[in-house]
Predict the 3D structure of the following.
Amino acid sequence: MTLATATPKRPRPAKRRTSARDRERRLVDHGAWFLVLPALIPILVLSVGPLLYGIALAFTDSQSGRTEPTRWRRFQSLAWQEESVTANKELVKEWNATHPDVKVEYVQGTWDSVHDQLLTSFEGGEAPDIIHDASDDLADFAYGGYLADLRELLPERLKSDIPQHSWETTTFGEGIYGVPFLQEPRVLIANAKWLRESGVRVPTPGEPWSWEEFRDVAKELSGDGKYGVAWPLKEPVSATLNLSLSAGGQLFHRDADGKVEVRFEAADAVVPRTVRDEVNTDGSAPGTTLGMGGSHTLPGFFGGRYAMVPLGFSYRQQIVQQAPEGFDWQVLPAPAGADGLAQGVSPQTLSVAEDSPHQKEAAEFIDFLLQPENMVRLALGDWMLPTGTEALKDPALHTTKDDWATGTALAEHLRSAPAQSVRGYPEWKDKVATPAFQEYYSGAIDLDELRERLEEDGNLVLARYQR
């Protein structure tokens, strides 16, 4: 019997340090996967989210009997008032019910950050197909190639329904880059009882006050710690420039080569001088409201401190909601000048992204949204005026209730805001015009220095954008 030779014993290897990755792998292997699951969740969401969304859309298509997947278009809306949001969502729902193959997804945006958000989405290739914005925010996007030229996309019905002076607000160069659909004149919201008891002449759109008469009335309504008017001018530039159109002011002048120059002329001084004199000479307007937004003046208005407040037409909604019971108020037209009741506006707009592969369908949705009856619904929801001539005929916009009729009577006088197509306007406004007007209205500088800063400093800013 032969004995087997014994196998020599191998030396035990040195103990190796276990890495964190090995320990994590061992934990998973031994059933402790739940300890590393939190770290995996973000990855799972980012990876699986789009897949689940696609499955959901496919499931919806299969349930409806469609063999081709639904094509979804994103509509970013900036509606924020409850009535306006409801109107927009209802219209999207109605569109989707009748267009099963080209549905629209409602995306909620916000006015506070829309410019930066859109710029980021354009540069990242993630812009919505249909874009809600305002005409004074479109210039850089239009010139930058981010918005589609709508001239060949829109139906003749829509193009002819909106007046030419409204189309001018969204025309940049030769193209049209947005559909102007809602607009808001600046009006005087007045304490009706105060005016009646004072005996002053109450203006109408047919017989408005002149700027001189407005100043006289404000003085007559003042006294005993009360003021005839309160100017909320936290953002003084657009209010000043837009109201100055009534006096013939233009401020921005374009030469034959298309270059813009700031010239502060006599007509441009009418409105600023009126405001400054009411605050600093007449004592008919408080200086404390110059740094306020419109909403902040309402408590003083309701409390009988101010007889009138110049505000946007849509502020009527806040007044209806917030005014004390029995408070009697009315809407008056803004004063008229050499050019009558002319006033600059920057309408709300609907545009189509240049990179959208669905421009035709996006334009069709805009046409649906702006059918006359739908445009009226949007206007009522936002307490603003439609641009469409057919919509403006709707009886709902000609009622004395909440003074809709007064605002509607002003629609024909609304024009493109002076700064509408000026490249570099945002920087000019923020760095030059806003501080200059604020100092002028407070009495810190005189008219000559205001003119010097707007022209000399302002033209240096604009020149950088026109090289």
Notes: Residues 37-64 form the longest helix (28 residues). The mean pLDDT is 88. The chain has 19 helices and 16 strands. Residues 57 and 70 are 7 Å apart (CA to CA).
